[in-house]
Amino acid sequence: MPMFIRSLLVLAAVSVLGVAPAVAGEWLVDKANQQVQYTVDKRTWQPVTTGMTIPNKAWISTGPRGRAVLTRGVETISIQPQTLAAVITTNGLFSRKTEVVQQKGELALDIEKRGRPHTYVHTPFLAAVVKGTSFSVTVTPTDASVSVDEGLVEVSSFTGGQSTDVGPGQSARVDQSQTMSVSGLAGAPAVESVSPTAASVAAVGASAPIGAEPGGSQSAGGGGTSGGQESGSGNDSGNDSGSGSVFDTAQGSESGTGNTADSGNADGTGGGKGNGNGKGNGNGNGNGKGNGNGNGPGNGNGHGHGNGKGNGHGHGHGNGNGN
Question: Is residue 88 part of a domain?
Answer without folding.
Answer: yes
